[in-house]
Design goal:
Elements: E1 2-9, E2 14-17, H1 28-35, H2 38-46, E3 50-53, E4 59-67, H3 78-82, E5 84-87, E6 91-103, E7 115-131, E8 154-160, H4 177-187, E9 199-200
């Protein structure tokens, strides 16, 4: 199963998060209490409530979230593998039945603002993959906007935890800086001025 769409952030970070972990967030003051500082965010990462999709850039980005099923493990497609720039180490995600993906500034209790993905309750490992979507021929339409079948900037692969000894990434920066610096500078401006309207697989 997968969901896809285009999401924007003006706070430099997107994230996949567990909504029940943030039910107390109802205004800016309560948001500050759990997500303002890096150590606050890292505590949420360690708890499995927050997976950063973070290259340190504002903008609008295409996102695909793909969830494992018994018959279809969550993997990259052939097209995505061909244009893969870098993959993160797995992050822990502890689900109570649903995940939301949004800009970090939109993390809050109901109503949720973002892309919703049904993720069965349990422990999951999430790998974030950065895709060079604009390298694929035909990725833009005549107006220069992403074509309806354009690849996403980020593909999140959500699979069941492989074992209790899995080593999880806990850094707020999703990719090692030395690996992603050039990609961050390039992708940060790619979809920045585009309307948040394109959806795929919904």
């Amino acid at each position: 199963m997968e969901v896809a769409g285009e999401l924007a952030t003006a706070a430099g970070m997107l994230a996949m998060w567990a909504p029940r972990s943030f039910e107390s967030v109802v205004d800016y003051e309560t948001w500050e209490s759990v997500l303002l500082e890096d150590e606050d965010i890292r505590a949420q990462v360690l708890a499995g409530a927050f997976v950063p999709v973070n290259i340190g850039a504002d903008g609008a980005f295409g996102i695909t979230a793909r969830v494992d099923s018994i018959s279809a493990p969550a993997v990259l497609t052939d097209r995505e593998r061909q244009h893969l720039l870098v993959s993160s180490a797995p992050y822990l995600f502890v689900s109570t039945g649903e995940a939301v993906i949004s800009g970090v500034e939109h993390v809050r209790g109901v109503p949720y603002l973002g892309l919703k993905a049904p993720v069965p309750a349990g422990r999951w490992q999430v790998t974030v993959n950065l895709i060079d979507w604009q390298a694929e021929p035909g990725c833009r339409d005549e107006a220069g906007k992403p074509a309806p079948n354009a690849l996403s900037d980020f593909v999140l692969l959500i699979n069941p935890e492989r074992g209790a000894d899995t080593q999880y990434r806990t850094q707020i920066q999703t990719f090692d800086r030395a690996t992603s610096r050039d990609q961050r500078l390039q992708l940060g401006a790619e979809r920045k001025a585009l309307p948040i309207s394109r959806t795929k697989g919904l």
